Amino acid sequence: MKFLKIFEKFNTNDINTESDLISKLIEYSVPVDSWGTGSSKNVRHLLKEILEEECEVVEEGGYLVRYIEFVGVRVYYRDKNSEKWALVEDRQEFKDGRVRERNMQSSVSEKMKFGEDPVMSAIRGVEEELGIEISESQLLKRRDIFYDQGSMSYPGLKTKYKGHQFTCWLNDSQFDKDGYVEEQEDKSTFFKWIKR
């Protein structure tokens, strides 16, 4: 006789604390003991995403799947010599001393909140990450993308992505030749310009 473990339906409304989330993740065999090391985030980060409605975690076929909708903005600048510059994320430095380098397709990536308009999310993302205000007229929608894969941030947790890609050209007053730094409670993210 074959025995199958029957899981309770995963409901993020039942998740209010870090220990609630850890218990559910362990129940679904997600290897949380490795989180918060190397380039991964910790359980507190995932709880924040859930509570701030930046992701949804659902049970599918006995596994937990994290759903993310995001915007990606490729940021460019053309100087007075007609040289084209592209902004890239250089690295993230965590307060605990870890450094994470990512090869991002976009200059700025921002998780959308439930029901948020992609254009408004792109504007918010550029402002939060680079500290500059852009207008809607500076954004050009490129395409939408869909993909499934694991997450560098949360190893062992399946993630499905829907992305809205934009291009943004900065003007002279928005351009900082030294790049930009986003300061967060747990890390700093550094952005630099490269010539194209």
Which SSEs are present, and which pair or pack?
Layout: H1 18-27, H2 43-51, E1 56-60, E2 63-78, E3 84-94, E4 99-100, E5 108-111, H3 118-130, E6 139-149, E7 158-169, E8 180-183, E9 187-195
Description:
Strands 1, 2, 3, 4, 5, 6, 7, 8 and 9 form a nine-stranded mixed sheet that branches. Strand 1 and strand 2 (63-78) form a beta hairpin. Helix content is 16%, strand content 38%. Residues 1-8 have low confidence and may be disordered. By secondary structure, it is an alpha+beta fold. The chain has a domain at 66-195: Nucleoside Triphosphate Pyrophosphohydrolase. It is built from three helices and nine strands.
